[in-house]
Write a structure and sequence with these properties.
Layout: H1 16-25, E1 29-33, H2 37-46, E2 50-53, H3 57-60, H4 72-83, E3 90-94, H5 103-116, E4 121-125, H6 129-140, E5 145-150, H7 156-159, H8 169-185, E6 189-193, H9 197-206, E7 211-214, E8 222-225, H10 227-230, H11 252-265
Parallel strand pairs: 1-2, 1-8, 2-3, 3-4, 4-5, 5-6, 6-7, 7-8
Helix pairs in contact: 2-4, 2-11, 4-5, 5-6, 8-9
Bound molecules: 3-methyl-2-oxobutanoic acid.
Function: Catalyzes the reversible reaction in which hydroxymethyl group from 5,10-methylenetetrahydrofolate is transferred onto alpha-ketoisovalerate to form ketopantoate.
Family: Belongs to the PanB family.
Subunit structure: Homodecamer; pentamer of dimers.
């Protein structure tokens, strides 16, 4: 069991305005998912900037084929566990499928994830009108929002699978328009998933909020990966955009540290991780 003691690393807490400052200063933001307290502590000690309790937990923890079965209660449980393992790392939690169906539900979810579980920010997928309304309502109530565009996993059935988005000109323009719309609605951060690197670069230049890529190329303001993918423990084939950082290293701590170093130096993502 972990007990905070004199060896606990002391870092300046990462804040929401601090993320914007990192973009302005050209410092890469390192984000990684976590689902429990022990791994959260690994992120904390490796100096990860942002921990994401993703609804990917439905796939890598619960064993489902998609993120859709994850409930708000699941998210609150895992977010509270992760919060207990963090001190300086900023904590973001996903709004699960359909918890954004209208403003009252989105506010209820935001209140539970931030007030009860300890997140500093909530993440919401897409840019449909009801999502923009939810972003505005959350931000007005001082709940910072991370938007999520491109390959949004909660739309898996609409996309016909986990498919790269924004390849055609028209689709790319749509993603760009959505990015401007979520920024205008008040989002403070944007996760951009599964799009060509050229589109990742355009979006990152078009918005003033930090853009965190996952399969969106090297020109974003930071990167995020699913913890189980980058430790090589997810069953099946690893996504092209991910990398097993445990290969050639002898501990989880070393793998997470290598990921952070490679994002900060620009070594990750390499061309073979991009579309
Ligand atoms: O749920 C999740 O882990 C995510 C990341 C893939 C960004 O949304």
């Amino acid at each position: 069991m972990y007990v905070q003691n004199a060896n606990t690393p002391v870092r300046k807490p990462v804040t929401v305005p601090g993320l914007r400052a990192m973009k302005a200063e050209g410092r890469q933001i390192v984000m990684l998912t976590a689902y429990d307290s022990s791994f959260a502590w690994q992120l904390e000690t490796a100096g990860i900037d942002v921990a994401l309790v993703g609804d990917s937990l439905g796939m890598v923890v619960q064993g489902h084929r998609s993120t859709l079965p994850v409930t708000l209660d699941h998210m609150v449980y895992h977010t509270a566990a992760v919060a207990r393992g963090l001190s300086a790392t900023l904590l973001v939690a996903d709004l699960p499928f359909m918890s954004d169906r209208d403003v009252p539900h989105a506010l209820e979810a935001g209140a539970r994830l931030v007030g009860e579980a300890g997140a500093a920010m909530v993440k919401i997928e897409g840019a449909a009108p009801h999502v923009l309304d939810a972003i505005k309502a959350l931000v007005e109530r001082a709940i910072p929002v991370c938007a999520h565009l491109g390959l949004t996993p909660q739309s898996v059935h609409k996309f016909g699978g986990f498919r790269i988005q924004g390849r055609e000109q028209e689709a790319a323009e749509r993603v760009l328009k959505e990015a401007l719309a979520v920024e205008a609605a008040g989002a403070d951060l944007l996760v951009l998933e599964g799009v060509p690197a050229a589109l990742g670069e355009r979006v990152t230049q078009a918005v003033s909020i930090p853009v965190i890529g996952i399969g969106a190329g090297p020109h974003c303001d930071g990167q995020v990966l699913v913890l189980h993918d980058m430790l090589g423990v997810t069953p099946g084939k690893r996504p092209k955009f991910s990398k097993d950082f445990l290969v050639g290293r002898d501990s989880v701590a070393a793998a997470i540290k290598a990921y952070a170093d490679d994002v900060r130096s620009g070594a990750f993502p390499a061309p073979e991780h991009c579309f």
